[in-house]
Amino acid sequence: MQAILWLVKERIIIWKNHPWQVLFLLAVPFLSVVLYLHTSTGTSQDNLTLGVVDHDRTATSRLLIQGMRRRTTVKMLTHKQEAKALSQQNVMAIVTIPTGYQQRMDQGERPALTLRALQQGTLINNLRDSVTASVTDILQVRGLATSSVPIKQVGTYLETHTPQLKFRQIDQHVAAHALTLQIIGFLLMMMLYQANTFGTRSLQLERRNKIYQRTMLTPISPASYFGGTALFGLLAMLVEVVLTVIVMVGIFKISIGMPVLTLMGILLWFGVLAVLWSLAVGVLANSSGLASGLQILLITLSSLLSGALIPISVMPIVMQRVAMITPQYWLLQALTQLQMGMVTGKFWGSLAMVGLFSLLCFSLAIFGFMRRQRQEIFD
User: Fold this and answer.
1) Residues 5, 306: Cα–Cα separation, whole Å
2) Could you give the CA distance from residue 108 to residue 159 in angstroms, rounded to a whole number?
3) DSSP helix, strand, coil percent of the chain (3-state; round to 5)
4) In this structure, are residues 202 and 11 in contact, taking their beta carbons and an 8 Å threshold?
5) 3-state DSSP assignment of residue 117
6) Helices then strands (H, E): number in the chain?
7) Are 118 and 175 in contact (CB under 8 A)?
8) In what order do the strands lie in the sheet containing 93-97?
9) CA–CA distance, 283 with 204 (Å, rounded to integer)
10) Phi, psi angle pair for 108, to nearest 5°
């Protein structure tokens, strides 16, 4: 243990002599939060899509939807899709047409529509006016076609028969929780890149400069060298996780939907995987060029496929299945379950899948250390 701690201390001293690496480690949490806050703000202002859930599916409801399409962009949703569409900001608001809408209109009633939104403001008011205007169009057609209302009394008729439009603002925490997952998804990718710096690059550089061979001539064993490198990388992951949570919760006041210490623990669990991933690539690659290429390829592809950068709900079903082969997917699934307050077997199963990926990387790293007998041969 003393040899491991000595090795960690020496690595920290060497690392402190590279100010750009220190600055990048400290800047990643701010970069993750600011980037996605900017992206989220721009998206919410530009997305004027109105989601519609049609429970009635009659001629009247279809006519109503056509009127909405003439005034704004409409996206048809099912009952199961409406909550996800709002939380992921795929639509600005959702209008629900209730069951029996046409029948109640035929009976002279004024059935209410429900407009749900995560926020209020000018954009929501414009969408609400578009829906109201579409309803007025239907009333005008139905009222003039089925009754003998004098032309002079049309305005009074529409005013007294216009159905109510109920506005319901959804809890802002739903959007904040979705934003939290976006920030964390970007952070997971940056953690893998950071682990590459503290794991793969350290190993490759020390093998190239013959530091590894000289270290093996000291009382430090290969196991201590491996453990010290892993502990050094894990300390870097801990610093990044703590800083990110402080920036999210303490500075930007983002609602994460779970206890702070729980989030730190889950992210640190992924940090273990990131370090072991980096060590596995570092010892298996025959050159620094191959190691860097593999890391960039694996990290970028896995981040894109897992839903860490792009919401997985917008991906085709096939790609959603492919995402399950990435560890980032399972970690995000665990966080989603935790935000929903569902700490069930599915939550623990998702964390176990991340652990299996860590075990795989650990096995590959051990295999690489044992297989490489001639460490002096390195390009």
Assistant:
1) 35
2) 14
3) 70, 5, 20
4) yes
5) strand
6) 16, 5
7) yes
8) 74-77, 50-54, 93-97, 113-117, 165-169
9) 8
10) 85, 10
Give residue 276's pLDDT: 92
Alpha-carbon distance values, 184 to 135, 319, 368 (Å): 42, 20, 31
- CB within 8 A of 201, min separation 6: which ones? 282, 288, 291
Instruction: Tell me the C-alpha distance between 307 and 295, whole Å.
Output: 18
Question: What token pair was written down for 351?
Answer: 């964390």
CA distance 373 to 253: 52
* Spatial CA neighbour of 243 closest among 20, 22, 15: 22
pTM: predicted TM-score of the whole model, two decimal places:
0.63
d(Cα 326, Cα 298) in Å, to the nearest integer? 10
**DSSP 3-state assignment of 160?**
helix
Nearest to 105, CA basis, from 97, 96, 116:
97
DSSP, collapsed to helix, strand or coil, labels residue 166 as strand
- Report which of 31, 20, 41 is spatially closest to residue 243, judged by C-alpha positions: 31
Both tokens of 87, joined, read 């939380």
Residues 273 and 111: their CA atoms lie apart, in Å, by 55
Element (H, E) at 51: strand 50-54
Long-range residue pairs from 261-265, CB within 8 A, at least 24 positions apart, any chain: 262/338, 263/335
Q: Under 8 Å CB-to-CB from 186, ≥6 apart: which residues?
A: 32, 35, 36, 308, 309
Residue 16 near residue 22 (C-beta atoms within 8 A): yes
Please, how many CA atoms are within 13 Å of residue 112, restricted to the half-sphere of its CB? 8
pLDDT per residue, tens digit, the chain (379 aa), is: 777 787 778 777 777 777 777 777 778 778 777 766 655 544 443 446 888 888 888 888 888 888 888 888 888 888 777 666 666 667 778 888 888 888 888 887 778 888 877 666 666 777 788 888 888 777 776 665 555 445 444 445 444 544 555 544 444 444 555 667 778 888 888 888 888 877 667 776 766 666 666 666 667 777 777 788 888 888 888 988 898 888 888 887 777 778 889 999 999 999 999 999 988 888 887 777 788 888 889 999 999 898 888 777 667 788 889 999 999 999 999 988 887 777 788 899 999 999 999 999 999 988 877 776 444 444 4
Q: Any idea which residue has 């009127």 for tokens? A: 67
